[in-house]
């Protein structure tokens, strides 16, 4: 389904709480399904915290310990108990997305016969489609997003910060005829349901919330280009309810291909469920894509190799995957619902089955299902009879994909005359020397009566203005180089004029080191296992006196390995980060986790990130290389001007985690290697060693601050 991008490493743990206590009281989210109805008394007796209830499916999301989850499994009223699994989208590697590539074309539109439907005025009008995915880029010039919902933990915004959902949405509903980029059903009411985070991960509960939103908003079609090999009775129940309510659920079968023998069934859920329509992928030669999963749940195949569509940050490009095939089927259903409004979903599905091109073995088979998706002749469709063509917005002409213009963003779908915009910039500074960019602009005449301006910094929209505004100050900048572009947009959200890109160089405002120690606290803890002659006593005492480190049971345990969570907590106290309870997108860090606030702050500051499986792993030990990278980022040490030609240790190379920070620390005497000239970056670090390094680094940065 879609490519995930991941950065860095992650951390968390509180020094003052014993690890055994944490393990004994660890709680997780479980989905509890009841036989007949949700039993409130049983939930209270379970001592869990109810997070969400899906009454239609008799399912509850419950935060509870594993012991109590096992207790619930033994109750006769309970049908199942399942963990809140993490689900991801997977595709072959993403290409380098660009704004224009004339040789790219969406071959799939003609391949399924969508253009013939448009000739008869069938474009998906009045049909609502929910794309349950990573969100949709709401500023994209080729898409019109009517609304949406976010169920991820870190934002209520359903804009796409991954790209997968925008690509899927464009296959269904792109509507940019002047550049030849069209979706299957360009006039549908498109809705973004954001359940996948910026790394392409989703929890099962987030997906269920997205499905529930689509049901509550009475969507006609749900597209799910995501999946897992783990069955979920909760998801199955809710999707069955959605289907019973008349919603068509289309799902990608997954990119796990098949076994060498070609006999294994590797189709993912939810495509595997009887109530969903499973879609596989073929190439231009109607050959099954090698990545497309095979199995009894495949119902249709559709174009899924090198499919050109929209992408985040107003870009375009090709992707491959069954994720790209599924939206062709969703778009096809939208056209049929527009053309035949009185037919049921099952009747529409039968129409598509009757029109397929049979591939592979005669009849339905595990590789191609019924066959290749083809739209029927709609020349006599009853949905055309009461249509007022003057009230609908149709494509100007059938797009010719080979004619994609070299300026997708600046081309005007409405007005032939370009709108000229003069954009000027000026650099100012605040009292503390922080830079800010002041922008002013003036547009030529021939503007729409109703229009607005969109401002882009480094090709990402940062602000929008009414037609009478001509001034803006951007104070969200740092010491870097930026480009600004101003675009004029009509009342339909279509861009029809743009300024030249203006470059602003702020590298001269590079921030200098700045640090002061926190004030000392009253009655700091004393540690019975830190003797007066202990080699790191001064560092431990100083950090303890300022409330930066804690022990447990009157001991510091200096020789224990430092944990990921401990480092986050220490950095959070040192720099006074917000430690309030908050949601993170890590599956093993609940809202009420003791250092959730520190973890979220570290993520937002770009100091740490998560693992591929969307976990934080707070009790994992930290290596020496990881330590250098983390505290270097936290202190914001300058590494740009370092001479990195020669590493200070024989086992440290440019590929070593924390390489630049290790070089800086060694140069300034903050860290030392071993007698054999090595640093051993992959070895773990003790609590005492970490305390000593933090204290030495703090003294160094404080001294540098005073010299500036």
Automatic annotation (TrEMBL):
Keywords: Calcium, Hydrolase, Metal-binding, Protease, Secreted, Serine protease, Signal. It is found in: Secreted. Belongs to the peptidase S8 family. The active site is at 133 (charge relay system), 164 (charge relay system), 323 (charge relay system). Residues 368-409 are annotated as: Disordered. It holds the Pfam family SLH. Its cofactor is Ca(2+). CDD domains: Peptidases_S8_Subtilisin_subset. Gene3D superfamilies: Immunoglobulins, Peptidase S8 propeptide/proteinase inhibitor I9, Peptidase S8/S53 domain. This is S8 family serine peptidase. Residues 523-581, 582-645, 646-708 form the SLH domain. Residues 391-409 have a biased composition (Acidic residues). The keyword DNA repair does not apply. The keyword Signal applies. It comes from the Bacteria.
């Amino acid at each position: 389904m879609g490519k995930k991008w991941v950065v860095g490493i992650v951390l968390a743990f509180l020094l003052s709480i014993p690890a055994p206590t944490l393990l004994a009281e660890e709680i997780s989210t479980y989905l509890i399904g009841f036989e007949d109805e949700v039993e409130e008394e049983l939930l209270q007796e379970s001592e869990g915290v109810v997070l969400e209830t899906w009454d239609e499916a008799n399912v509850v999301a419950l935060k509870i310990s594993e012991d109590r989850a096992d207790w619930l499994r033994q109750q006769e009223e309970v049908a199942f108990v399942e963990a809140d699994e993490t689900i991801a989208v997977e595709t072959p590697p993403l290409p380098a997305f660009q704004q224009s590539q004339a040789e790219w074309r969406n071959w799939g539109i003609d391949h399924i016969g969508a253009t013939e439907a448009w000739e008869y005025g069938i474009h998906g009008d009045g049909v609502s489609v929910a794309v349950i995915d990573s969100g949709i880029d709401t500023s994209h010039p080729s898409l019109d997003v009517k609304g949406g919902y976010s169920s991820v933990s870190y934002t209520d915004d359903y804009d796409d910060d991954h790209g997968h959902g925008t690509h899927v949405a464009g296959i269904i509903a792109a509507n940019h005829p002047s550049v030849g980029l069209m979706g299957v059903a360009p006039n549908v009411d498109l809705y973004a349901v954001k359940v996948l985070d910026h790394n392409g991960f989703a929890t099962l509960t987030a997906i269920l919330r997205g499905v529930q939103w689509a049901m509550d908003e009475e969507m006609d079609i749900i597209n799910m280009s995501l999946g897992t090999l783990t069955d979920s009775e909760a998801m199955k129940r809710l999707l069955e309810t959605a289907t019973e309510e008349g919603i068509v659920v289309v799902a990608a079968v997954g990119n796990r291909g098949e076994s060498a023998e070609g006999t294994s069934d590797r189709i993912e859920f939810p495509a595997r469920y009887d109530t969903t329509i499973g879609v596989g992928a073929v190439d231009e030669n109607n050959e099954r894509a090698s990545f497309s999963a095979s199995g009894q749940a495949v119902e249709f195949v559709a174009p899924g190799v090198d499919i050109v569509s929209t992408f985040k940050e107003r870009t375009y490009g090709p992707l491959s995957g069954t994720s790209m095939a599924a939206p062709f089927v969703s778009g096809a259903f939208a056209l049929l619902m527009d053309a035949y409004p009185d037919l049921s979903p099952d009747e529409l599905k039968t129409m598509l089955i009757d029109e397929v091109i049979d591939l592979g073995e005669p009849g339905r088979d595990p590789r191609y299902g019924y066959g290749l998706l083809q739209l029927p002749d709609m020349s006599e469709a009853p949905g055309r009879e009461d249509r007022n063509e003057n009230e609908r917005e149709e494509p100007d002409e059938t797009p010719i994909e080979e004619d994609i213009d070299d300026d997708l963003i600046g081309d005007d779908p409405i007005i032939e005359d370009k709108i000229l915009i003069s954009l000027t910039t000026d650099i100012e500074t605040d009292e503390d020397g922080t830079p800010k960019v002041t922008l002013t602009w003036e547009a030529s005449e021939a503007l729409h009566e109703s229009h607005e301006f969109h401002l882009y910094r480094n090709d990402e929209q940062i602000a929008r203005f009414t037609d009478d505004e001509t001034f803006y100050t951007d104070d969200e900048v740092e010491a870097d180089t930026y480009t600004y572009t101003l675009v004029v947009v009509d009342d339909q959200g279509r861009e029809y004029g743009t300024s030249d890109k203006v470059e602003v160089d702020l590298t001269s405002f590079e921030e200098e080191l700045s640090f002061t120690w926190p004030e000392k606290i009253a009655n700091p803890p004393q540690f019975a296992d830190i003797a007066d002659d202990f080699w790191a006593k001064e560092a431990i005492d100083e950090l303890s006196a300022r409330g930066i480190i804690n022990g447990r049971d009157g001991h510091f345990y200096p020789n224990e390995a430092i944990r990921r969570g401990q480092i986050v907590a220490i950095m959070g106290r040192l720099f006074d980060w917000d430690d309030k309870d908050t949601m993170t997108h890590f599956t093993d860090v609940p809202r009420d986790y003791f250092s959730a606030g520190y973890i979220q702050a570290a993520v937002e500051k770009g100091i740490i990130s998560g693992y591929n499986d969307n976990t934080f792993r707070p009790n994992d030990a930290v290596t020496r290389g990881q330590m250098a990278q983390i505290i270097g980022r936290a202190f914001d040490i300058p590494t740009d001007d370092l001479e990195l030609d020669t590493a200070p240790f024989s086992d440290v190379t440019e590929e070593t985690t924390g390489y630049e920070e290790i070089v800086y620390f060694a140069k300034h005497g903050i860290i030392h290697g071993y007698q054999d000239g090595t640093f051993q970056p992959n070895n773990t670090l003790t609590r005492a060693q970490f305390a000593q390094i933090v204290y030495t680094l703090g003294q160094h940065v404080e001294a540098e601050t005073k010299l500036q």
